Structure formats: structure tokens, C-alpha cells
Amino acid sequence: MTRIDAKFAELKAAGKKAFVAYVMAGDPDYETSLEVVKGLPSAGVDIIELGLPFTDPMADGPTIQLAGQRALEGGMTLQRTLDLVTEFRKTDDTTPIVMMGYYNPIYNRGVDTFLADAREAGIDGLIVVDLPPEEDEELCIPAQQAGLNFIRLATPTTDDKRLPKVLTNTSGFVYYVSITGITGAAAAQAADVGPEVKRIKAKTDLPVIVGFGIRTPETSREIARVADGAVVGSANVAKLAEGETPAQVLDFVRGLADGAHSA
């Protein structure tokens, strides 16, 4: 059982929904990023989604693209991202961390080397948005053999014919993208999301967590009511981009977490 599996079991036993927060590793710099990540659990975050900076983030909107650029310009690398997780684990051995990014940096490092290093650092799961199920032998299956969850995205365009393929070899949870398009592009609507979550849950026992388009505690609550939890990313990243302090960002995150937990 991974930390992700244990967290969902704990939440289910408590009758609570999950709140997942995304931040970009190294944005706006390593030290600030580490301070934010360290503060997320006490702000109510159940699972941390840590962005791996990449030069060509095709699934991300301008907010997260710019965060990745700032991180890269500040010297953030895959190794530094692993270092950040290692540092986090010195004081927190229970909060799950999912690394979200693209395959190129992992491929460049070498899959076996990366997976060994990720495990050692304390990463629990991976979301690699540019590797479809047809490429499971590339990273998904080796990751699961190494003890990491491989989390897949389902979207409004994932029809009933495609869904079984998406769910095959997925573990940890299913990340349902509430909108068509890029991150931060539109607001999530519970009325649209609810039926889609039911459709997915009819095909899997995994929790279904909804992300993209959640910016307020109210939306976080509404989405968590129709799913197993909510993910917020661009809204958190935007606060850092506006120059808010880690304490201010964490206060904002706490409100979002409270929203999901009150569902």
C-alpha cells in the first residue's frame, strides 16, 4: 500500500473528501517553493501534487507555463525537484506526493534510474500527461513494479470506448479533468462534472478526483460533493506569481481545503 492508498483509506474511514494542491517545484525559487510545500499539510492538504518544470508544457495554461519558466530560470532541474522532496520527507513521512510533469526529463535521466531515485526521495505517484496508455510499457508498468502509483487523466472527451483503456494499469486515483482545454482556462461546473464522475466510478473502484477550473472554496466544495475530492493548481500558482508570501499562499490554500472537506 502506497501513502496515496493509505490516505484515501483514512479519508474514507473519516467520511471526508480529499483535497489535493498543486505547486510548481522551484517557483519562484527553491527556498520559497520548499517553504510552501512544507506548509501544505498543515493547511489541510491531503495530497501534494508537485509540478516538474519543463520547457514545453503542452497541457498547461499560461499561469503554470510561466511558473515552470520561472523555476527553470532559477536553476530548477529534475534533480533539484527530487532534492526538494527529500528535504520535505525529513519532517513529513506521511503526506503523499505525486510528481506531475512530462516524459522528456524522465526519459533523459533513464527510467530505471529515475524510478529508483524517485522512490528514494519519497515520491509516491506519477502523473505524466504526454504518455498515453498505449505506451504503458515505457513508464507506467515499470513505475508500478517499483511501488509507485501511476495516475491517469480522464477528460470530457474520454468516451465509453476509450475509458477502459485509460483505466487499465491506473492506480492511486483517477484524475478527472473537468474542462476541455488547458489548465486555468475555465471554471469547473459541478452539474457537468457529477455525471462524468459517476460514469467513471461505474468502471473502477479507484477514487476519482477532479481538477482544472477550481479557484474558490465554494467551487472546491461543490466539486468535492460530486467526486472523491478536488485538485487546485493554477489558483495557487497565481498567488505566488502575484508576489504573495508563503504564509499568504497557505492561507488561501487552507480556505480551498476547508471547502473540499466541508463537502
Explain this structure.
- The chain has 263 residues and is of the alpha/beta class.
- It has helices spanning 3-14, 30-39, 62-73, 78-89, 103-109, 111-121, 140-145, 163-167, 190-201, 217-226, 234-241, 246-261, and strands at 18-24, 47-51, 97-101, 125-128, 149-150, 152-154, 174-177, 208-211, 229-232.
- Strands 5-4-3-2-1-9 form a 6-stranded parallel beta sheet. Strands 6-7-8 form a 3-stranded parallel beta sheet.
- α4 packs parallel to α6 and α10 runs parallel beside α12 (246-261).
- The protein is globular, with a radius of gyration of 17 Å.
Write the layout of secondary structure elements.
Blueprint: H1 3-14, E1 18-24, H2 30-39, E2 47-51, H3 62-73, H4 78-89, E3 97-101, H5 103-109, H6 111-121, E4 125-128, H7 140-145, E5 149-150, E6 152-154, H8 163-167, E7 174-177, H9 190-201, E8 208-211, H10 217-226, E9 229-232, H11 234-241, H12 246-261
Parallel strand pairs: 1-2, 1-9, 2-3, 3-4, 4-5, 6-7, 7-8
Helix pairs in contact: 2-4, 2-12, 4-6, 9-10, 10-12
Key words describing this protein structure:
263 residues; 3-stranded parallel sheet; 9 strands; 46% helix; alpha/beta
